Amino acid sequence: MGKIILTGDRPTGRLHIGHYVGSLRRRKELQDKGDYEKFYIEIADAQALTDNYDNPKKIRENVLEVALDYLAVGIDPNKVTIFIQSEVPSLCELTFYYMNLVTLARLERNPTVKEELKLRKFENSIPTGFLTYPISQAADISGFGATIVPVGEDQLPMIEQTREIVRSFNSIYGETLSLPTAVLPENESCLRLPGTDGMAKMSKSLGNCIYLADEPEVIEKKIMSMYTDPNHLRVEDPGKVEGNTVFTYLDVFCKDEDFAKYLPEYKNLDELKDHYRRGGLGDVKIKRFLNNVIQAELEPIRNRRKEWQKRIPEVYEILRKGTEDANKHCLSVTNRVKSAMGINYFEDSSLVDEYVSKYEEEN
Ligand code: TRP
After folding, report:
1. Are 314 and 274 in contact (CB under 8 A)?
2. Sequence ranges of the domains in the chain
3. Is 155 in the pocket of ligand 1 (CB under 6 A)?
């Protein structure tokens, strides 16, 4: 069997350029290469509910937004199956059986969960659903036999936990589940794109994101007010490139051709950085350049999104069909899991036969 790729997002808001460089761009490349048997993208609404259970409206509203963002970056529903997690009930079933294979201590050790718990201030009243979501994510991945999981760095602990569950299941019940591997973006700055304010992560609550759906004026405003080097006060001053968000973004987005197009005094980013370090290069100039580069990258995405926005019933249909397909695949894996565990009572009559012969021998 060929490769099975699976990844997903929590539908808690529209997707931004952090998602784009951290994962969406890679998905599009993988799709275009076509070197796979199946490619699934999950809209993880049930997972999103583990810390938004009191605000289901937010999740409901964002399911279609996220689907639009996928289509906007060029995900082709004929090549990739997009589905909604909560509409695949076998995933809950798998989660329940996997729970037996994971200790509470192991869940509490998961670094991503630890960080999220701190952020959400659950303190001593951690909802069980939240603590156990890595188990449900293991079901998402293994329930489709996924071997390749393209994700951002923060998801590595989830893939590691999935691998442990898969190994444990296979050693107890026999070789059944496939072992997944995480695939990270290759450019280091893409691992975690900082917010426009220089904070470690783009996050809706910090208001430091550039969204894929943002209009050109909004993008420009966000870029022109970006965090640079706080000590670079006058143009003549030498500036710092490391930790300077404009340069971090340029590392991620700009190509040598962009210089020929928008800033022909320089051949490439190294020359621009050298000048900035020496002094004599103003922030406005590098921001204008970054704005040109990002606008060019986001324009086709925004336009494609607008086209799909006119065809919402079609998007809905893509999700319905994708979810139907996902259900079929996941059900077949779940049946294999149940049969490995011997809880496939009605699959055939072997259970009855076993009992019949047991009692025949006794009589
Ligand atoms: N936890 C992921 C996130 O927060 C979303 C997700 C859910 C996921 N299920 C997945 C990612 C399966 C990869 C594979 O972004």
Report:
1. no
2. 4-193+312-352, 216-308
3. yes
Return the pLDDT at 287: 96
Beta carbon of 151 within 6 Å of any ligand 1 atom = yes
Q: What is the pLDDT of residue 189?
A: 64
Could you tell me which CATH number the domain at 4-193+312-352 has?
A: 3.40.50.620
Q: Copy the structure tokens of residue 23.
A: 């994962």
Answer whether 0.85 is exceeded by the pTM: yes
**327's tokens:** 């259900």
Q: Do domains 4-193+312-352 and 216-308 have the same CATH topology?
A: no
pLDDT at 267: 94
Q: Which residue out of 4, 5, 9 has the highest number of ligand 1 atoms within 8 Å of its CB and is therefore the one to mutate? A: 9
Rounded Cα gap, residues 154 and 18, in angstroms: 12
Which residues of the chain, if any, have pLDDT below 50? none
According to the model, what pLDDT value does residue 46 have? Answer: 98
Select 216-308's CATH number: 3.30.450.20, 3.30.70.100, 3.40.50.620, 1.10.240.10.
1.10.240.10
Cα gap 363→357, rounded to integer Å: 10
CB 47 near ligand 1, within 6 Å? yes
Q: How far is the CA of 171 from the centre of ligand 1 (A)?
A: 25
